[in-house]
Design brief:
heterodimer; A: mainly alpha; two-stranded antiparallel ribbon; 13 helices; B: mainly alpha; Arc Repressor Mutant, subunit A; 10 helices; 0% strand; globular
């Protein structure tokens, strides 16, 4: 009797497991099933763009996304569905009440914003063998460019830290302003997002420029066995030049972000080129936006340090 | 803030994670690590993934259901996030954290829809839709399940991988696979049997499978 019961339980368990497996295998195909495109239009609309640097796309998902985009080119109905999903993302009257995701996240979690840029480094250091795809899927690992882009924020922190030291490490105001700036670095200008809904090609060009500038900034980092972080002055100069070029390029068509301008000014100050930093900071102060106070604080600090050094303010 | 700018910010925030939002195996590994060492940086990682996943979950639902008010999005995201945060230390299987969060989101969403329907039905004239069929949340989780399947295929022995991919991703028939790989159909059938046996032992895949079987 017991034996029969066990056999029955075993059979039922196997049946359940088979049913479960069938479900998941079917679900695993949904992403590449043309019939499911309508259901997935919002999902695809929310995926990072395929070639967007900094997006942590996996090979499998990127491939599925490519297929989806190829389908759209050939199928007018699906294209309309996709356009409709994207249209729903458009501006709506009452949408202004939403909070910025980063701010909302920080409020909810109580996390220290300074920890966020370190996330990438944390898991890279602790990467296990399971992170390394076996056999042919090596492409699955994030490319060097992506890694560089992600660690660009770390460098931004480092640069700002250096700036802080260069100015006056004991000045709590400057420290606070720069700490706040670095917490914003990761959320916005790391990817070189333009401030407005500019045309895609232009936005890509500007984004690519910023990514390159951050990659160069990253390359200028130095350390001794991971300790005593510093920077290579020559490389930092090249990175600063690149950053200035991108900012100039962006400003031909639209204003550059005040945060980027503050970062650029910070780089100039680090390189002891305060004369070039001042007009940039003054520009931000004139804008009188959220960053004006930080810019003013930096400006005051550069003037103070110039006085100490005997230069005209 | 519009859905469009919301999207850009969410994307940017999610791109600070060292893995894709849909890589549930990596998320689960990170959660196991956090539960073992309780490091603050692991906590930040888990918190950030949780927030981004929850936000994206509800954003997708809101995009699909245009009748919801945008102002409700923050509230429902907050509610789900708080639920996850307060109960996650109690979950039995730490290596199924991602799947558990998706269940919390689904339950929160169902409650939200029911509550909303109850409220709106009190209004004199309403043309509000019936609660949407939540089902298995494939509109949100298709990517994560696809990724789990792909990982499971990668972990198969080399000689089974291409067959598994053709059968379970490309959805080819036994005959088509047989023609492509140049092996007899009974051999392909035997390969598929072996593949399914191994899939049943894959913890991430089966965690999603159990999730899909839930009512």
């Amino acid at each position: 009797m017991t034996f029969r019961l066990e056999k029955l339980i075993g059979k039922l368990t196997r049946r359940k497991s088979t049913r479960a497996l069938e479900h998941v295998l079917e679900a695993g195909r949904v992403l590449v099933n043309p019939e499911a495109d309508e259901i997935l239009a919002a999902y695809w609309a929310l995926r990072p763009e395929e070639k967007r640097e900094g997006a942590n796309q996996t090979f499998g998902l990127a491939l599925a996304q490519r297929r989806y985009l190829e389908r759209l080119k050939r199928d007018r109905v699906r294209l309309e569905q996709a356009v409709e999903a994207t249209r729903k993302l458009a501006v709506s009257e009452d949408a202004k009440v939403l909070r910025d995701p980063l701010q909302h996240f920080l409020e909810l979690s109580g996390c220290d914003p300074a920890d966020i840029p370190a996330l990438y480094a944390l898991t890279e250091r602790e990467a296990t063998s399971s992170d390394r795809p076996v056999s042919r899927f090596r492409i699955d690992r994030p490319s060097r460019v992506l890694k560089r882009a992600a660690s660009g924020a770390l460098l931004a922190s480092l640069v700002l830290y250096v700036v802080t030291l260069g100015l006056n490490a004991s000045d709590p105001l400057i420290k606070r302003v720069l700490n706040e700036s670095q917490s914003q670095a990761v959320s916005w200008y790391m990817l070189g997002q333009t401030s407005r809904g500019a045309e895609a090609a232009w936005q890509r060009e500007v984004s690519a420029g910023y990514l390159e500038a951050f990659s160069l900034l990253n390359d200028s980092r130095t350390s001794i066995l991971g300790q005593f972080p510093g920077y290579d002055r020559g490389r930092l100069t090249i990175a600063t030049k690149k950053m200035a070029d991108v900012v100039a390029m962006q400003r031909q068509r639209e204003p550059a972000s005040s945060r980027v301008l503050i970062l650029l000014a910070g780089l100039y100050i680090t390189l002891d080129r305060k004369d070039e930093a001042r007009p940039i900071l003054e520009n931000v102060v004139r804008r009188n936006d959220d960053e004006a106070e930080r810019a003013q604080a930096l400006l005051d600090a550069t003037r103070a340090s110039s006085r100490t050094e005997g230069y005209p303010p | 803030m519009s859905y469009r700018t919301e999207l850009t910010s969410l994307e940017t925030l999610a791109s600070t994670l060292p893995f894709d939002l849909d890589q549930s195996d990596r998320v689960n590994e990170a959660f196991v690590a956090y539960m073992e060492d309780r490091l603050s940086q692991h906590k930040t990682l888990i918190d950030l993934w949780t927030y981004c996943y929850v936000r994206r979950y509800f954003l997708i639902k809101f995009i699909r259901e245009r009748t919801f008010q945008v102002s409700e999005l923050d509230q429902v995201v907050e509610q789900a996030y708080r639920k996850v945060e307060s109960s996650r230390s109690l979950i039995a299987h730490h290596d199924r954290y991602a799947q558990w969060v998706s269940v919390v989101c689904r339950n929160t969403y169902m409650n939200f829809v029911s509550r909303r329907q109850a409220l709106t039905s009190l209004l004199p004239s309403h043309d509000f839709p019936l609660p949407p069929k939540v089902g298995s949340d494939l509109d949100v989780n298709a990517g994560a399940i696809h990724e789990a399947l792909r990982r499971a295929i990668q972990e198969l022995p080399e000689f089974l991988q291409s067959t598994a991919r053709m059968r379970f991703v490309e959805n080819l028939t036994y005959e088509e696979i047989s023609r492509i790989v140049g092996k007899r159909i009974p051999t392909i059938r035997s390969y598929i049997h072996k593949i399914c046996q191994r899939f049943r032992k894959d913890r991430q895949l089966m965690a999603w499978a159990e999730r899909l079987l839930e009512p």
